[in-house]
Design a protein that fits this description.
The chain has 11 helices and 7 strands. By secondary structure, it is α+β, with helices and mostly antiparallel strands. Among the domains are: 8-131 and 147-186, no CATH class; 283-352 and 367-413, Histidine kinase-like ATPase, C-terminal domain (Heat Shock Protein 90, 2-Layer Sandwich), CATH 3.30.565. The strands form 2 sheets. A 5-stranded mixed sheet has the order 1-3-4-6-5, covered by helices on one side. Strands 2-7 form a two-stranded antiparallel sheet. Strand 3 and strand 4 (342-349) form a beta hairpin.
């Protein structure tokens, strides 16, 4: 895709916002000041010091806006001591005033009033110091034509007002653009959330209309066959009942998942999630489905978080599901080691009693990766590997308390 280039005018407009711009512009004004001082053979220490005070602070006017106000004041003092206004002094004063107004060192009205008052004071200082050639006579401020002495005040007042208005207008435009961009980002975020909510609703409908319906049919058929098939043995009857119970449990979890997907913020449903206290029911379901599992525990079960409880339960559930799927007839051992800081879950199974069913090509599954992601998200770890005797082990180490979660208190026996 070809790279899009912004117009040159836009790139030039961005130059004043660059971090190096204040130093470069101050250096240019300083160069003009050096040329003027050299050409005019200016040696007055007062003029030289005020000229330096008007130019040098401009290099830091963006980071410390009050220095810009100091530069403007120094420029007015320079003009007071040298009525022949230097170009560099005028540029420095206007630049400092613009930066002061742009950064709102003072409110625009107050800054304008202060600038006009300072201009009038400088004008009065020029009159008092005899800057006007009146042949040695003292200016008569009340006489006809005395207002012409304040022409420079009028010019300075106009320059101050125009500079403050331009700076405040530029600041207002910049704030408007920022607010508009923020509103556009908010709109895009709202559209993204709306699209995500619509997608969750679509998935929830599909789970409810297709998967949940199919699971409910399995539960109904298993219940029905228990009574409709004649001469059904006790083992077969128990098998159908186990299928029905598993289907109903899966249906309940599907409904919980649908509730989660239908919520706009994606938070968990209000129905309780399984914990390690429900482990006995899970192991009984494994035995009823034809598996064999032994439960071993060591240590005292700590007060942990609901997220850790759910993760441990799901890891054991997925591990036992893999045993039934890939190692039919194998005996499994579930060992839970509790410490105040960690919960260690270890599920191991022996070699399968019969060859596992062939798996379709491309059906790698996501069970182990899902268990690993659960553990890592909680700050734990998970490892799995086959054993030399043909079995398989899954070991998870979970912190007792996940960061930022609510501690789960086990129900009393």
């Amino acid at each position: 895709m070809p790279r899009l280039h912004r117009p040159a005018t836009l790139r030039l407009a961005d130059v004043p916002r660059r971090p190096w711009y204040p130093a470069v512009s101050a250096s240019e004004i300083a160069a003009v000041a050096v040329l003027e001082i050299t050409a005019g053979r200016i040696t007055s220490p007062t003029v030289l010091v005020t000229a330096a005070g008007a130019v040098l602070p401009l290099a830091w006017r963006h980071r410390r806006p009050w220095l810009a106000a100091c530069a403007t004041a120094a420029a007015l003092l320079n003009f007071l001591f040298r009525p022949e206004l230097l170009l560099s002094t005028g540029l420095a004063g206007l630049t400092g005033l613009y930066a002061s107004a742009r950064n709102r060192v003072l409110p625009p009205v107050v800054l304008t009033a202060c600038g006009i008052a300072a201009a009038v004071l400088v004008n009065l200082g020029h009159i008092a110091l005899g800057a006007y050639d009146l042949g040695g006579a003292t200016p008569a401020l009340g006489a006809d034509g005395s207002l012409s002495y304040f022409a420079e005040s009028l010019l300075l007042a106009c320059a101050v007002t125009a500079t403050v208005v331009l700076a405040d207008g530029a600041r207002s435009r910049e704030e408007y653009h920022r607010e508009r961009e923020a509103a556009q980002r908010q709109l895009v975020e709202m559209e993204r959330r709306g699209a995500a909510a619509a997608e969750r609703a679509r998935i929830a409908r599909e789970l409810h209309d297709i998967v949940a319906h199919a699971v409910s049919v399995i539960a109904v058929q298993a219940e029905t066959h228990t009574y409709t098939i004649p001469n059904l043995s006790a083992d077969a009857r128990d098998g159908f009942q186990s299928i029905a119970r598993s289907a109903r449990a899966s249906l309940a979890e599907l409904r919980s998942l649908v509730d989660i997907l239908r919520q706009e913020d994606g938070t968990a449903a209000t129905s309780p999630q399984p914990t390690l206290e429900d482990l006995t029911t899970l192991l009984e379901a494994h035995d009823a489905a034809g598996g064999m599992v032994d439960l071993l525990t060591s240590g005292s079960r700590p007060h942990t978080t609901a997220a850790v409880e759910l993760a441990a339960y799901r890891i054991i559930q997925e591990a036992l599901t893999n045993v039934r799927r890939h190692a039919p007839g194998a005996r499994a051992t579930c060992r839970n080691d509790y410490t105040p800081q960690h919960i260690r879950v270890h599920v191991a199974n022996t070699a399968p009693a019969s060859p596992p069913p062939a798996r379709p090509r491309g059906s790698g599954g996501y069970g182990l990766n899902g268990m690993h992601e659960r553990a890592v998200l909680l700050g734990g770890s998970l490892d799995w590997h086959p054993t030399p005797d043909g079995g398989f082990t899954v070991t998870a180490l979970l912190p007792a308390t996940a960061p930022g979660a609510t501690v789960f208190t086990p129900r009393s026996a």
